[in-house]
Amino acid sequence: MDLEAYSGEHVVKALADVASSPVEDELVLASVAESLGRILARDGGCPEDLLASLHPDARRIAEEVLRASR
Fold first, then answer.
1. Could you read off the pLDDT of 34-55 as tens digits, one per residue?
2. pTM of this prediction?
C-alpha cells in the first residue's frame, strides 16, 4: 500500500515485475497495479509496452487509474 509515494525507473520496474506475474495473489496485483498507475500518471509516462506486459487484471486496474487521473 502507498507505494506510489516512491518514484524512479527502479520502482516502476519492480512494480511492473510483480504486476506481470501470472501467479501473484489478486490483492497484491491490485495494490501494485493501483500504485503503478498513480506513479505513471504523476510522472507523466504511460509506456504501452509496460502496460502490455502486465497481468490482465493488473493492466485493467492501472489503466483505470490512469484514465481517472486525466
1. 999 999 999 877 789 999 999 9
2. 0.89
